[in-house]
User: Which sequence fits this backbone?
């Protein structure tokens, strides 16, 4: 359990904490991503506690974050969910794998129906398969990341404007998220850039490839001018490292190229070649953003800890706002308070804003497409991971521009 902030008043620190269970791969080949998430959520809970905790009718209560290491496995994640609910935890957090998220949604639906006195909510910060808020949408599940179609549409918007681009290679992880991205990328590109030739299309095992040189060689042989990938964690870092080692002069349109080792690996070689889409990045340039980033760097000063996502901070802030609105931490009351909730996190130091769409529990939020540039250039005051390179905004989409339709037919509890 994460220690409570020492600045808490004694009356708050003595109150029973509201426990949040992080179920994530904290070890194994993708453990670096899980630990990076943990740092974000530690900071989010610390900030709430420093303000006095969650203000409820019975008195203020602090947040406490529990670690449950799923090792990136669906089976282990389900075991950790049972352990968390057995301990009476009412809020579960997960995101690094849509396959895991889908299994957790199904299991939590059954648990909440069987044991209404021990219900729990699932807050998702990174599992972006659209099916999770469409075919599998659940009253108990809320997603705070932009889904695959939202992120992909933003990247395709930039690709569509690059009329010099003629050939593209697709490479993704072989599970629900990567498979959907593969299909949807072809559909969107066929509509927006029917002249663009897809010269390669690979799916590879999630977290099991140690050497991406064979894939980099295929990309070179294909003659692709650019690569579109949803890879994350070491699967992205190792892919781009292989491309660098092979000397590929290829542009990478990525979902996650602005964090988790990619800037540090590429450095100068990634300038003008790596693009990323996110809800925020350190060089957004507003005063709120500058204060937000400076506060995080003060808390986590090591360059290798440079992995900050505004949506994770907003997720915790919105959870607390919903609890305070409901006057309770009861999952069904909190879920109803979350539906339709709008929160501008900027006054709270989050530098981000969002609206929780009631129909499918998909957060609607602005998106940025950015490109890697040298630190110190116009629009790039901050680098990533001490690499000397950072990201500059290419395209900003308001929440209304980024939203996608939903096919959710949600079943609500009586």
Assistant:
């Amino acid at each position: 359990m994460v220690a409570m902030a020492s600045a808490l008043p004694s009356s708050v620190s003595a109150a029973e904490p509201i426990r949040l269970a992080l179920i994530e791969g904290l070890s194994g080949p993708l453990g670096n991503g899980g630990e990076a998430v943990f740092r974000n959520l530690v900071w989010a809970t610390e900030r709430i506690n420093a303000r006095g905790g969650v203000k409820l009718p019975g008195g203020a209560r602090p947040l406490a974050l529990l670690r449950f290491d799923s090792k990136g496995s669906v089976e282990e994640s389900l075991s950790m969910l049972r352990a968390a609910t057995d301990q009476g935890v009412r809020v579960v957090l997960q995101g690094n794998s849509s396959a895991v998220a889908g299994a957790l949604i199904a299991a939590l639906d059954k648990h909440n129906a069987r044991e209404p006195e021990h219900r729990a909510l699932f807050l998702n910060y990174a599992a972006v398969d659209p099916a999770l808020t469409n075919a599998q949408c659940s009253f108990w599940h809320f997603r705070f990341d932009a889904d695959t179609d939202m992120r992909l549409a933003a990247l395709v918007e930039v690709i569509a404007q690059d009329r010099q681009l003629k050939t593209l290679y697709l490479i993704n992880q072989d599970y629900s998220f990567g498979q959907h991205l593969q299909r949807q990328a072809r559909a969107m590109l066929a509509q927006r850039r029917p002249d663009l030739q897809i010269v390669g299309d690979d799916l590879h095992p999630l977290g099991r490839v140690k050497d991406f040189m064979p894939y980099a060689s295929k990309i070179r042989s294909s003659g692709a001018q650019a690569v579109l990938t949803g890879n994350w964690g070491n699967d992205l870092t190792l892919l781009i490292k292989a491309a660098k080692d092979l000397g590929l002069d290829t542009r990478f349109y990525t979902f996650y190229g602005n964090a988790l080792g990619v800037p540090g690996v590429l450095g100068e070689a990634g300038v003008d070649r790596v693009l990323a889409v996110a809800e925020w990045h350190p060089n957004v340039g507003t005063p709120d953003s500058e204060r937000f980033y400076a506060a995080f760097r003060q808390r986590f000063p090591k360059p290798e800890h440079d992995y900050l996502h505004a949506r994770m901070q907003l997720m915790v802030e919105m959870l607390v706002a919903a609890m305070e609105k409901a006057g309770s931490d009861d999952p069904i009351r909190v879920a109803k308070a979350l539906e339709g909730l709008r929160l501008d996190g900027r006054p709270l130091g989050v530098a981000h804003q969002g609206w929780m769409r009631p129909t499918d529990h998909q957060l609607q939020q602005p998106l940025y497409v950015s490109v890697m540039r040298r630190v110190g250039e116009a629009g790039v005051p901050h680098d990533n991971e001490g690499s000397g390179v950072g990201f500059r905004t290419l395209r900003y989409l308001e929440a209304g521009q980024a939203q996608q339709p939903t096919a959710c037919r949600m079943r609500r509890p009586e």
About this structure: The chain has two domains: 10-146+308-364, 149-278+366-402. Confidence is low (pLDDT under 50) at residues 1-7. Residues 149-278+366-402 form a domain with the Rossmann fold fold (CATH 3.40.50.2300).
